[in-house]
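Renewal narrative, Specific Aim 1. Our central claim is that a sequence can be written position by position from structural information alone. The example that follows is taken directly from our test logs and has not been curated for this report. It begins with the structure tokens describing the chain, in the order in which they were read.
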């Protein structure tokens, strides 16, 4: 038996996955969003992805966020 205490991972506030996978097409769409709103758009895109219980950001999700922003 080891005397070392097991390492504890930081507690997570939510059950959201730690990372998302972006399709190349979704990444391209994100790059086309003006830089001054890109971080807000990315956050909303990720929220939509999590709400759909998905780990992959697709073009459809980016388009859904774009419609919400009225673009």
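The sequence written for that structure reads:
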């Amino acid at each position: 038996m080891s005397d070392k205490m097991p390492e504890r991972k930081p507690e997570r506030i939510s059950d959201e996955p730690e990372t998302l996978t972006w399709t190349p097409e979704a990444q391209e769409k994100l790059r086309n969003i003006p830089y001054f709103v890109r971080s807000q758009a990315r956050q909303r895109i990720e929220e939509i992805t999590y709400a759909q219980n998905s780990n992959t950001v697709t073009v459809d999700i980016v388009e859904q966020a774009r419609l919400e922003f009225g673009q």
